[in-house]
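Recall the central idea of this unit: under ordinary conditions, the amino acid sequence of a chain determines the structure it adopts. In this exercise we apply that idea directly, starting from the sequence alone.
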Amino acid sequence: MNILIDNKKVNFTESNFPILIHGVEKSGASFFSVCLLANLLKNGFKTLLFSAYPMAKEEFRKQIIGYENKAIIINSGEEQVLIDSLRNVTDLNERVVLIKNIDNYSLNLFNAVKDLKLVIFSGDLNKCEFADDIMKRDFATKILFSQSEKHPQYDLASLPKYHGRIISSIYNGMISLNSER
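Accordingly, the structure predicted from this sequence is:
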């Protein structure tokens, strides 16, 4: 999938990190997060995916055929497994780390990865017990697929599914996906 901002194809770079992606269930934020990670992998980044649910891992595997050697997928959705696994990833600071479903985890997980530069936090801030801690982090890019009750933003009324608002020093507009051609 291609990433579009205001209907123009873009490729994210290191200057876009760290990234926060917020969306309630069924907003498209989850699928977008997986597609963004696959896009980054195909554009030369090494990646690490951690998700609470197997569907995201399956979708990621489908999208990265031919690029698997640069991707790490933590098969378990258990928080402590990821924290322990991170200690064994020798090139962790060179990888884009997607922590998906942040609302299913604790502050311990956030603290384990919060200082990584190439990190993406994705989930529903409304259900996240450490949303206030996340919002204290300086994100280069925020992508919002729905309004957050805890941390409201402007200009998010009636976003269509799979469309979000991107806010950063580089981009400010509508973000979406389209099929690769």
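The mean pLDDT is 92.
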